[in-house]
Amino acid sequence: MSGREAPRLVELVEEAQRVLAICNACRYCEGYCAVFPALERRLAFDESDIHYLANLCHNCGSCLYACQYAPPHEFQLNFPRLLAQVRKQTYKKYAWPAFLGAAFERNGLLAAVATVAGIALVFLLSALIADPARLFAAYSDAQGSFYAVIPHGVMVTVFGLAFVFALFSFAMSFARFWPDTGERVGDFMAPPAFSSATWDAAGLRYLDGGGDGCTYPDEKPSFARRRFHHLAFYGFMLCFAATTVATIYHYVFGIRAPYPFWSLPVILGTLGGVGLLVGPAGLLWLKYVRDPDLTDRSQTGMDVAFIALLFITGLTGLVLLAVRETRGMGIALVLHLGAVLALFVTLPYGKMVHALYRFAALVRFHIERRRPLPEIGTE
Amino acid sequence: MDFTRVYDVLVLGGGNAGLCAAITAREAGASVAIVDAAPKHLRGGNSRHTRNMRTMHTAPVGPMTDAYPEEEYWDDLLKVTGGLTDEALARRAIRQTAGHLPWMIGHGVRFQAPLGGTLHLSRTNAFFLGGGKALVNAYYAAAEKLGVAVSYETEVVDVELRDGRFGSATVARHGAEHRIAAKCVVVACGGFESNLAWLREAWGPPADNFIVRGTPHNMGRVLKVLLAKGAKQVSDATQGHCVAIDARSPRYDGGIVTRVDAVSLGIVVNRDAERFYDEGEDFWPKRYAIWGRLVAGQPDQIAYSIIDAKSMGKFMPPVFPPVRAQSLGELAAAFKLDAAALERTVREFNAAVRPGTFDHTVFDDCRTQGLTPAKTHWARAIDTPPFFGYPLRPGITFTYLGVAIDDRARMLMDDGKPSANVFAAGEIMAGNVLGKGYLAGIGMAIGTTYGRIAGAEAAQLVRA
């Protein structure tokens, strides 16, 4: 992190300490989500507590509308926006390698450049390694169309490296973040807390505003965001499963792509692709109509970039499926692989990292929940 | 809102009681309008600052544990009011609370199991998810869906009342005056605690040091007009819910976070660095309601809650950090107290403390001997630096001076006869039930009960 940005985090920590003192004395919101029970366990909040609470927040917005101290009250308390601002600082602070934390400042631009670069790279690979003419030819499925455009070995190497790098970067960020919470690494994997956190994350438990749905995109409780997020997330996971199954087909059974329409990889990929269209489209629409009071506008670029990349990945994948026996296959493949490459490369430097810190925060919440409450008397 | 239209029911004040009345009347078929003095973000009067409703129940229900039968509820009320209550009206309010929960849920209010600091209230009080502002938001959404007209920033300046019959209300909005005629009216516009001049009239100069914990909009204008035009008065202007809060709180609207829960763990001294009341008389939740009046009775209406390191962190964290000092002299200097006097007070207190086993969760045996005033529980020597202090002021929450009603929420006139078409609900009539003292969550019980009764009676009246 550069010296110029450091005071920003310091200011946010100070503001968070002021706001958390108000929240801790009030506690009216404690039924909404995990953040409030977690803050009630504390009397003082250091920087790591503030990163923890910020990443435990799902930005559902319910506490803002319920807050008797929200602007224009003189306490000027906007808890969801403050925590959103802190989250950006978490992403920057724990990015690996550290200098890439700066990527969170101009994230929309970064993702756009990555997308163009990804497509260009795949195009170059296909053009340089294979005969450029093959790019515009039509193939039947039986001819192993994809690998005619980009050899299998090249594809595996490039995407394997990108994927391993993303995983490694996430692991390094986690390795820097978790010790700062003061919890032991061994406790992270301990079954009770880990499984509770997995359950909460898988169901987006805290995107429910305490039961009726969260106040997103406006004051009226709704489950729209949870549902679109489910479509996006499970769409992503289905696509990932499709790739995994295809890898097994290839290496274990020696069955080469393209696979028939009713084969497992294609069914999984098609369902996932539809999820990646509908989910991100819905999330983008919600973002467009949401109450501006709930957000940190400096992060809109990052949010939109990630959602858009997911959408483009889904869209190009389905287009590829539709045109794979036509002359358009080569271009569709290049676009799809370029989008996937851009998505992988930017995973650790974009909105995707919210999943890492949110999950770590949920695990910590469940570790703490099993400890006795501190003695703080009664109201 | 259309000021020229003649509504069936006009509701003055859009807090809990007014909203309950408006929703009930509208659902019974009446046309209804609410006028509220506050801008939209401050709507809901003091209901915005509430958190729970004291609710009778005979078996565990929803968020509530065990049972809280009518007789126990009544006994609790009798204890705090010392008998200054109308038994018929009080019992009606108590009984009806049992049926409020499903009605409230039906209109969008959500409840939660109490956690952490409020567990001890889980048997007697139903907690609103998100607190009173969330409740108010839910009711406004329900009212607007039903077609209730709402006008914010609309202050009632006069009420036309002839021989106990309401004709119209004169309101001011953005500098213009309008006359709103209606077939009947529900007055639900609170007490007068925001009116510093009126507080001064009632309390004298000490009122200048009062802090108003809630809305700045309860000026008591309608109350004053009604009393001047022949409504029968209940309670008096010095009665209300007044607690000791942090002296650094904002003049208005500080709400719940301004409370200081350290009192029973240490000592409280006045401007002259002298103790003046038994800090350990009872559990703090049962005693906080008397400390506002106690501080109001001290010179300059200021007091200081002082604890030492042993007690730090053992109570609900207040919003403002304590003044922290390594010695009593330093603490005295920070509060501009006479250091020698404070040291003497603490020395005498420490010398009077008898050995005991400290336990803040029960009436323990830690007390003083031969000291006036005594500290009868949780007395431990103030001897372990650092020392901490919180300055205290009287924080007025709401006032009990109001209009008398009958059990159909009809406002009574001086001759004891009910008004033909004026109903009252909420804080403006709470003094009928609560002549003095306070019971957590009873304001919302009174407001919800008489709000719903007033709405039903008003709708019935216009239908007839």
Helix content of chain B: 25-40%
- Major sheet summary line of chain B: 8 strands, mixed
Secondary-structure element series of chain B: EHEEHHEEHEEEEHEHEEEHEEHHEEEEHH
Give the integer mean of the pLDDT values of chain A.
91
CATH topology assignment of the largest domain in chain B: FAD/NAD(P)-binding domain
Q: What is the CATH level 1 assignment of the largest domain in chain B?
A: Alpha Beta
Q: What Rg of chain B is obtained from the alpha carbons, in whole angstroms?
A: 23 Å
What is the straight-line distance between the termini of chain B?
Answer: 26 Å
> What's the helix-strand series of chain A?
HHHHHHHHHHHHHHH
Quaternary arrangement of the chains shown?
heterodimer
How would you portray this structure in words?
Chain A has helices at residues 6-26, 35-40, 47-56, 62-66, 79-93, 107-129, 145-149, 152-180, 185-188, 191-203, 224-253, 264-289, 300-323, 329-346, 353-369. Chain A is an all-alpha fold. The longest helix of chain A has 30 residues, at 224-253. Chain A starts with 5 loop residues before the first helix and ends in a 10-residue tail after the last helix. With 464 residues, chain B is α/β, with parallel strands linked by helices. Chain B has 2 domains: 7-194 and 215-233 and 401-463, 3-Layer(bba) Sandwich (FAD/NAD(P)-binding domain); 243-395, Flavocytochrome C3, Chain A, domain 1. In chain B, the strands form 4 sheets. In chain B, strands 1, 2, 6, 7, 8, 9, 18 and 19 form an 8-stranded mixed β-sheet that branches. In chain B, strands 10, 12, 13, 14, 15 and 16 form a 6-stranded mixed β-sheet that branches. A 3-stranded antiparallel β-sheet of chain B has the order 3-5-4. Classes of the chains: A mainly alpha (379), B alpha/beta (464). The interface between A and B is large, with 38 and 44 residues.
